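seq:
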Amino acid sequence: MAVSFLKREVSDLCLGKPPLRSLSAAATVADALAALKSSDDSFISVWGCDHRENEEEVKGGRCRCLGKLCTVDVICYLCREDNLLSPSSALNQPLSSVLTKDPSLVVHLQPSSSLLEAIDLILQGAQNLVVPILPTKRSGVSRRKQHQRASSTINSHNGREFCWLTQEDVIRFLLGSIGLFTPLPALSIDSLGIISSDVLAIDYYSPASSAVGAISKSLTQQTSVAIVDSDGTFIGEISPFTLACCDETVAAAIATLSAGDLMAYIDCGGPPEDLVRVVKARLKEKNLEKMLQEFTVLSSLMGDNTSASSSSSSDEESPTRTLTRSGRYTRSSSYSARMVRKAEAIVCHPKSSLVAVMIQAIAHRVNYLWVIEDDCSLVGIATFSNMLKVFREHLETM
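struct:
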């Protein structure tokens, strides 16, 4: 059993995964934002080729994924001082203005690559593994339907489709064979050394703008930014996952609110009206007239849809830390149709078992859990990458 597990290929983990929607690196930030708003996906991949313009680019070796982009990338980009002054001009810049410059974050893998190779690449810092989708009899129909539905983006590159292989995919796969790793699953994350004290954090009363760098870093690391008080008590988080459900004008809220107020602003159901008024007043004080104009238009449209969207999501909310599907908002609304998540953070205790933490993280579709003591003091963070490190070490002994 253990021998067959070690021989598993990454193609086994990619079965049924949808093809990547992609844009050329020559596209603008506005193009990417439009593609994200018209999609149910949180991310869009960016490639060094554009087959709509030149099929011969593949022969030049340019047909490679350069990275992935989500609304949070655009929000952090718009939070730059010069972009706040002229958001429209910023959106017309090429995607190279937004993409992370580190090429090691994206790695292409062949379907025949081993699961161990994928885990090693993740532990070496790769955040995005790109794998060709093996063709099936039904895949041609699927491709045609998806292409018709998303004409602004490309699914196929030189006749091949690709998918992301994520940390969550690997953890899910390991969980399906968790019995092979006995006694690891029953041990506490504390005893296994999975808890990291190196966390991204900001004080509750600090300006949210001071967390832009941390938000961008947490997006790359697939974690989050903790909000704590002066005593180190964990209060909540600024989650890239939650921000990805917001409109790009949340950049105005980041530029004007405290970290604590931002947490309330991006919470499920839309921002409180009093905070919307605060953002407008502070934009005016800072002479950010162009951002104020865009924020005013979109926030007024958002207000027209708040009651309808709140009622559609409230029926499905769980009383505790859950992800909720909501009814579709209009695309001008500040809160996306893809998925709305409550800002309440997902936490565990240092003595929680490894398998319990894995299940909890997967259930809430996050790559990490905040680790807190009984008095809510922040201990650290337990991430999928740290869990994979423990599993990888155990595999050495199999």
